[in-house]
Structure formats: structure tokens, C-alpha cells
Amino acid sequence: MTDARRFFDDIEVGEAYESPGRTVTETDIVLFAGLSGDYNVLHTDAEFMKQSIFGERIAHGLLGLSIQAGLFTRATQAFATLSFIGLTWKFKGPIKIGDTIRLRARVTKKKETSKPDRGVITVERVVVNQRDEVVQEGETDLMVERRRR
Fold it and tell me: What's the whole-model pTM score?
């Protein structure tokens, strides 16, 4: 059986990917509130939010971050990831109920480690909505297995 994962050795700086879209629903927000325990009025009080700068409830920022992680797996063949080791992230705009978000990602760095069986891949990530507005962006560092020799 062949391994369908992409190893550190196979991944090139400059590779770019774009995911399919994913529509964020009210159910996503309600379930995430329950899972996280974050019942902030921004996400749970429709009447209160009618008077806010957003005019309606918005998704949790961390829900958007979580969804983009899943979108990354749909944008490219799976990396041979050993661990998620770092994150720099900015929340640039609201994700509203009914928004369809996509992830644009690009490998920006590869770094050898002191261990010969792994390396670190840095991926720049940009989350856009259906109007191509950037709603979140940042970088992630992934520890990726090297191909066995």
C-alpha cells in the first residue's frame, strides 16, 4: 500500500492552494457555542445584535479558525503532519451566518530540524468570504514527517 500523504521532502516553498467554499450556518454557531462554552451575545442574541455595528449575530472567531483548518485538508493532498506547532493569526472582519468562506494557502518556508525524521513547514493562510473580503489571515507552523530513506 502506498502512502498518499505528502512528506516534508515533497513539499515546495511557493506551493499555493485554494479550498472549495464552506457556508457558515446558524447551526455551526450554536454548536460551537455549546462546545466551547462561549455564549457571548455577539453569537447568541439576535435582538441585541440588530443594534450592533454588525447588524446581526456573527460567528466566533475561533469557529472561523477551526473551519479554515478543515478547509486546508480539502485544498491539498494531506501532509504527513506530526503536529501543529505554531500560529500567528489576525481576525480582520466578521463571518456572518450564511457567509461562504474559502481558504487560500501558500507554503512560505521549510526548515530543517535537529531530528532527521522531520521538518517544519510554514503556511500562510488567508480566509476570504464570498465577496473576496479577507476575514482572517495568518501563518501556521506544521511539523511534517520526512520520507523514510
Answer: 0.93
